[in-house]
Amino acid sequence: MKIIINGIHANLRFSSAHIIPKHESCGVIHGHSYIVDVIVEGERSGEFGFVVDFKKVKDIIRKMCKKMDHRVLIPLKNPNINFKNINGPIEFSIDKKDYILPFEDCLLLDLKSTSAEDLSEYFAEELYYKLKEINNEISSVQICVNEGIGQGAYFTKNS
Ligand SMILES: [Zn+2]
User: Fold this and answer.
1) Model-level pTM?
2) Torsion sign (Cα): 141, 39, 75, 106
3) By the 8 A CB rule, do 154 and 142 touch?
4) Per the residue annotation, which of 26, 117, 125, 126 is the catalytic one?
5) How many domains does the chain have?
6) Residue 28 alpha carbon to ligand 1 centre in Å
7) In whole angstroms, what is the distance from residue 102 CA to residue 72 CA?
């Protein structure tokens, strides 16, 4: 069975800035109001016969959204970003552009990119392993990270 949580109606959202290095229009710092949709599939279990409690899924996703909200998302594994400092002010360059951003304005992520594709994979992996601790019968977690309304990237984490 599947449970579905619609990010707009369940308020699973965050607003963040990011950069997609070398991309013609997305290579400058810009922002999105992101919305996260969730589908969890698995066997029903426990006292109530839930796949997983909606509230538990929302709590996990909301915490992740809160960490990202109103931050510049920085992908530490991006091969096109040349980091000079990540312990104080975040200093890096992309081609000939130099950036210095306050540490508290940024969220450093262990990702290659902060595209909707990479963010959906990140959310799905995190959610999958956290939910597995609650219900071992979960077979997949599917996340759609929407960049605004009308476009998003789906990733499915299967067991
Ligand atoms: Zn963007």
Assistant:
1) 0.96
2) negative
3) yes
4) 26
5) 1
6) 9
7) 10
Radius of gyration, alpha carbons of the chain:
17
Is 70 noted as a catalytic residue in this protein?
A: yes
Q: What CATH number is associated with residue 58?
A: 3.30.479.10
DSSP code, position 113 = -
CA-CA distance, 29 to 122, in Å (whole number)? 21
**Residue 134: band (very low, low, confident or very high) from pLDDT cuts 50, 70, 90:** confident
pLDDT of residue 83 exceeding 90, the answer is yes
Range of the structural domain that residue 77 is part of: 2-158
Cα separation, 108 vs 122, whole angstroms: 13
DSSP character string of 11-71: T-EEEEEE--TT-TTTTS-EEEEEEEEEEEEE--BTTTTBSS-HHHHHHHHHHHHHHHTTS
With tokens 């990140």, the residue in question is 122
Across the strands, what pairs with 146?
35, 152
Host H or E run for residue 122: helix 116-134
Strand order in the sheet with 90-94: 82-85, 90-94, 97-101
- Strand 106-109 versus strand 72-75 pairing type: parallel
Which residues place a Cβ less than 5 A from the ion ligand 1?
Answer: 26
